[in-house]
Structure formats: C-alpha cells, structure tokens
Amino acid sequence: MAHETPHTSIRVAARLANGFALDLVKLGGFGRDVIDGLLLVAISQANVAQITRNAELQRTYATLDQPPPDDMRRPVSVSAIANSLRIPFETARRRISALAEAGVVKTAHRGVILPTAPLNSPFYRMGAEANYALVRNLYFRLRGLGLLEDLPRPNGPPFDPDHPPVRLVIRLSSDYLLRLAEPVTQYMGDLVSGLLLMDVIHANTEHLPDTEGGDADGGWAAEGFVPDVQRRPVRATALSERLGIPLETVRRHLQRLVDADRCERKEDGYLVPARILARAPFVQYMLDNQSHLHRLYAGLADFGVLSEWEREILALRGAA
Predict the structure, then answer these.
(1) Is 108:75 a contact under the CB 8 Å cutoff?
(2) Does a structural domain hold residue 294?
(3) What is the value of pTM for the model shown?
C-alpha cells in the first residue's frame, strides 16, 4: 500500500470484517447452520470457478436475473470440499448428503453441484440482495477509516444501476470468505471452534463505534487493543442462537477454547481479552485480513462496481 495503515484502523477493519464474514456465512446457508453455510459457499464457488476466472463471463452472469445455467456448473468432489475447508471428510459427506436429501444440492458420481433452481428462488434472491448490501456497506465503513485509498481505477464500463451486479459481488465476496477458512482452522484447531471464537470476538465488540480502535501508540501489545472493560461477554445460549449450532456443541467447543487459553469464561459469559488478541497468530490474521479485503475491493473496482457506488452516494448528497 502507498502508506502505512495505522494499527487502530487495522484493528477496527478486522472487527468489521469479522462480523461481515459471519453474516456472509449465515446468508449462504439457506437458513441452516454456519457449517452448512460454509459448505454451500465452497460448493457454489467450486462449481463456477471458470466464471470467476473469466472477466467476460463474470459480466455475463453478473445480475440476479442472469444465474449461470446448470451446464456451466462443474461438479466438485466431497473430498475436495473437505480439504478446502479443512474439515473431516466424514463430516463433509454426512452434511452434503443431508443437503442433497433436502433438495439444496445435487450429487452424482462426478461430484456435487448447487443447481440453478435454489439459487433463483425468492428466498435466495432476498439473501443475495442482503449480501450485496453488506459488501457495499462495509466498503463505505472502511473508506470512513481511511482505508482502500489505492484501489485500481475501473477498466470496464459501469453497470446499469437498475440492474446491480449482485451475483458478481456474491462470487467475489465468497472468494474472500473462503480465503479466511484456512487461517481460522489453522489458528483455532477446527472450523466449528474457529467460527465460535470469531463470534465471541464479534459479540464482545460489536457495540463499539468505528472510531474505537484502541491506543494508537500501543502497537500490537495488549495495551494497544481496546481495554477489556469495554468488551461485553456473551453467553453460550446466545452463541448457539446466533450461529444455529446446538447448545451442547457450542458448550463443548467453548470449553476446548478455554482449555487452550483462546478465550476466558466469565461470570456473565465468554470473552476474548486483549492479551489473547495481541498474540502473534491473531495479529497475523488481522494483517492478512487487510490484504484479503484489499483484494476483494480491488476486484470490485476493476469491474466498475465501486465507481457506481460512489456515484450513487454523490447523487444522494446532491439530492439532499
């Protein structure tokens, strides 16, 4: 980047991205739990990988009214999905079988696909528009932090504002989400524990304003993070409801996290304190997240999406 990003801005960006990623998982799950949500995102992205690598196809199948047809979706094996998410093969197989029985995915000897029909349903379209709004909202919040100043200029024509590129935005934001899966499991031990830890951190800090990033002079030491007294503990029951995971499963994984000293159990819930967030793996996760966010929005800038969003904001200000 052209200038060094302040530690405070990186911490706030990581906090915003944490909640953003969890919301994307929930939206991608067709009302199921966050593990199924990630599985469906991974399956869908693998099915349309040839589209995400081709700018012309990205534009052709950019809007809600232009879903890629089934004959363009390439099946992906269960083992490939399990490996990409770093989850046990049997877990992936069992859950994908349940998704097939529910009619969400189709399986064959060549693998599994997420077909066009559920991706064109009113329920999906409502979630897709919410996904689009989340990506747009995060962009302006990051811009408010002084980030994303050096994105590339668009090299293609802007989109028609009456037909926004919802599916294109979903594909690029899904790529961002899947890039987080590996470090989450690497640092937390397994995917469920990682998602729980992300949600504990999110629940602890979601009330904080975007201006609260800790002590600018504290660097990456614990003293530089938001003080623990400003963090709000979260109960296991709330985490179960937020993530759609059974309460006993939540409690079991939370105990593993406590035993591994990745979070603390307080009288009124669970907390990830500054001393843990200041550890090297968490700091590296935040720094990597900066690169992942930049890659996401650079891709959107390249397709002219950001310039259209900026024009919309200027138009609203002019109308006011």
Answers:
(1) yes
(2) yes
(3) 0.91
